[in-house]
Amino acid sequence: MKQYSNSKSVASGCLKVFLVVFGSIALLFGVFGLVDLVSGGQVVGTEEDVSYLTGIIMTTFSFAVGFGCFATFFMMLRQAKIIGYYIALIGNKKSIPIKWLAEKRNVSQEKVIKDLYKMMSRGVFTDGHIEENMNILLFPDENSIGEFKTVICKNCGGSVVIREGHEEKCTYCGARIRE
Description:
Elements: H1 9-39, H2 48-90, E1 95-97, H3 98-105, H4 109-121, E2 129-131, E3 136-138, E4 148-152, E5 159-163, E6 167-169, E7 176-178
Antiparallel strand pairs: 1-3, 2-3, 4-5, 6-7
Helix pairs in contact: 1-2, 3-4
């Protein structure tokens, strides 16, 4: 059975909450600093020039931190959406042509391979690996014996990689193929 690691989802969720809360606080400080600068507020006991310069630096820093937090948050949401899309496409298939994934995602095969390696390095597909010479993503059973072989589907003519002695469904038409 294919494994999708979920161990980092709690940490990821906590990080997202932290980014939103910290980013909101930083933006709030930036807004207060901007209002203070525009209204001409002064810090008591300091010279006006130093106070104004400090206000500009702190306001700029607050806005930068706030926008950085929100940019990271939205980037994490985008990555989660991409990972979810791959998981939905792959489902319970044992071998998936990279070309098919690229067509479904409307990106290049190189981009799909890069995405898959990135997800594997982050522990998303713990038992999958890419056979680059055959250009497929494989999820072999640990108990499976036999070599992988490319076969032509008799129903649609598509090429499917299967393990000798095992039955697979054609990636393109769903017909059962046994070698």
